[in-house]
Amino acid sequence: MRILALSHYYPPEVNAPASRLSEHAHVWREAGHEVTVVTCAPNHPAGALYPGYRNRLWQEETIDGIRVIRLWTWLAPNEGFVRRIANYVSYMLSVLVWMWRFPKADMVMSTSPQFFCGLAGWLLKRRRCPWVLEIRDLWPESIVMVGAMKRGFAIRLLEAIEAFAYRHADLVVSVTDGFVPHIRTRRPHGPIAVIKNGADLSHFTADRAAADAFRAEHGLTGKFVASYVGTHGMAHGLDTVIAAAERLRHRNDIAILMVGGGAERERLRAARDQRGLANIVMVGQMPKAAMPAIWGASDAALVLLKRVDTFKTVIPSKMFEAMALGVPMILGVEGEAKALMDAGAAGIAITPEDDTQLAAAIERLADDRTLGERIGASARAYVRANFDRETLARDYLAAFEAVAR
Description:
Blueprint: E1 2-6, H1 16-30, E2 34-40, E3 58-63, E4 66-71, H2 81-98, E5 107-111, H3 115-125, E6 131-135, H4 141-145, H5 153-168, E7 171-174, H6 180-186, E8 192-194, H7 208-217, E9 224-229, H8 239-247, E10 254-259, H9 265-275, E11 280-283, H10 291-296, E12 300-304, H11 318-324, E13 329-332, H12 336-343, E14 347-349, H13 355-367, H14 369-386, H15 389-404
Parallel strand pairs: 1-2, 1-5, 2-4, 5-6, 6-7, 7-8, 9-10, 9-12, 10-11, 12-13, 13-14
Antiparallel strand pairs: 3-4
Helix pairs in contact: 1-15, 2-3, 3-5, 8-13, 11-14
């Protein structure tokens, strides 16, 4: 099968959409399928090109045997509605301009969360090949829920685009069960499949030497390390981490590690410095290859979102990475994510945006290392039994084949 995948993000970018598609594509290629990815020049989250790349109209490379076509887009940081929309729309326009040059495909897959990338798949469906639309986020609903935009004409227009895409795809793939009712109200007919995120178990393996080196480099040796790894955005409510760190400033044996970039990072850094919180170590975005060492250097994984109803349907992808390396979670997310954590006995739940509970959970794990080891062992076994990325990628192939038939 010839698979053409459209994604706004792809390695060397390290966010969840890039990791999910690249890991799936690797399995698809190993299974004997021809995979081509159409994406942008890597620039997330700062809107700045990664070293060695240029923002050309068309450029190609091969990554792990996958043909990667990169199209020109209007570069913009992951903040500010107008600039981000310009970035998203420019991708769809580039697809429209260059689609004549794309290789022939038996299956087109496009992935959200930005719907102009998802909708770009419809342009290729017009070439008489099936179109699978992947929904990673309920966009634009989520940007309203976090307060990034108020509901008005622009949101209603985006919702109309969303509904159009749901109706016209041959298959919609959701990454959570919780998204399905929302999708079904806008897609009364047609198949919907759920293929959740997972972890590449061949990549997320323990490397004690690398973990110890990371601790030493960042002054974390001998400390209990509670880590937030991922985008520092409006959706994550990371002021809770700042407030919890202030409650823990008397514990010289506890450090909070924050790794990643995003729209809120500099504001959070300023808040840390203004309060003189030496117990918070902030590290910029790191390559995917460094993730096992970072998680290996962590004694607890902070998985946090704001307390809004939409996020009850979300499962943050970092959960699976932490579980794969046996790192106990402190989970500030309600709904489906909490149910998954509870099923695997993989962590401690707190009320989202509650800094008192967050500080108490960190102290509990710091003071009872046996509890953390027991939780970590359960988490590792659960993710290996249920969320191996290779198994999930093969489930995806089965869904493609069903659509093709």
